[in-house]
Amino acid sequence: MAAGKNSESGDSKKRKKSKSKTPEEKDAASGISEQPGPSGGEQQPASQFPPSFSVSEIKNKQRRQFMFMKLKMERRKEKLALRKKRKKEREALGDKAPPKAVPKTIENQRVYDETTVDPADEEVAYDQATDEFASYFNRQTTPKILITTSDRPRGRSVRFTEQLNSIIPNSHVYYRRGLALKKIIPQCIARDFTDLIVINVDRKVPNGLVLSHLPDGPTAHFKMSNVRLRKEIKRKGKEPTEHQPEVILNNFTTRLGHSIGRMFASLFPHNPQFIGRQVATFHNQRDYIFFRYHRYIFKSEKKVGIQELGPRFTLKLRSLQKGTFDSKYGEYEWVHKVSQMT
């Protein structure tokens, strides 16, 4: 009996101790526990916001993430309130309101390229009238393309070649087996091919593209990246039809850009079939060429939507060579240098 009384009295003491809390514990439970400030000696409540110290100094990961998200939301609210205030001021001033500030982007902050040319310039017009693509733009030749790959392609590269063949009219696929390009080019010229496309493959993935205009060149070598096949594109449309697509060339404004743009344009026939509503786009941005293939849909008399058909890929020019492909004795017009900031 005595032992039982002692155990009961011990339990009651523990309950009393658990009920009685210190002031520090009460503050911690109420969320106003004190934390050291940036100097280490000052004390401030944790509920103060925004905090006067860096959020990165908080050691607890969950608490640090919570404080960071809270601080981010507060800054967003301040930015929104400032934007509404400016809008009201502009509405109040009316025509006397100052012009809107132009946001800083990578494009408008770039240094002006001195090689940018005016399409209406007489010298540019003369160069275009006498270059290797003049016969195509004068409608004296019809594009006929041969598409080939590296030796013995497999899997993804074969599917990409077939899809590229389906979007370029009058193109033919030939899988070479150990045959050198120097032997293929004379055969292409003899069979009246106007362009040769070679898809380089590394570890079954397309990583390069060589485009050679026949019979006199030039030859461009591109690095290829971000290749997406049709099945990998979300919300894609149906398979492309055999209609000849329209071609859009964006931002090919420099001397080099004019040559590359005309090279891409010469791959497609002159007269697009608008009934097919298909568009091939080459968009040059920050010296990267983005290729997209779309079909546009008329939703109403004023609204038009687009569906991506695929494939898609990105090109980066590595070199531009005069004449047809010749890696040993070829003369290069332009070569990308590793240290060159383009």
Question: In words, what does this structure look like?
Answer:
This protein is an alpha+beta fold. The longest helix is centred in the N-terminal third of the chain and has 33 residues, at 61-93. The strands form two sheets. Strands 3, 4, 5, 6, 7, 8, 9, 10, 11, 12 and 13 form an eleven-stranded mixed sheet that branches. Strands 1-2 form a two-stranded antiparallel sheet. Helices cover 31% and strands 25% of the residues.
Number of helices: 8
Q: Can you tell me the residue ranges where pLDDT is under 50 for at least 5 consecutive residues?
A: 26-41
N-to-C span: 92 Å
Largest sheet: 11 strands, mixed
Cα-based radius of gyration, to the nearest Å: 33 Å
Shape: globular
Note the beta-strand portion. 15-25%
In short:
With 342 residues, this protein is of the alpha+beta class. Helix content is 31%, strand content 25%.
Keywords:
342 residues, eleven-stranded mixed beta sheet, two-stranded antiparallel sheet, 31% helix
Question: How do the helices and strands line up, and which of them pair or pack?
Answer:
Elements: H1 2-19, H2 23-30, E1 34-36, E2 43-45, H3 61-93, H4 122-130, H5 134-137, E3 145-149, H6 156-167, E4 171-173, H7 181-190, E5 195-202, E6 205-213, E7 219-228, E8 246-250, H8 255-265, E9 278-285, E10 288-298, E11 304-308, E12 312-321, E13 332-335
Parallel strand pairs: 3-4, 3-5, 8-9
Antiparallel strand pairs: 1-2, 5-6, 6-7, 7-12, 9-10, 10-11, 10-12, 12-13
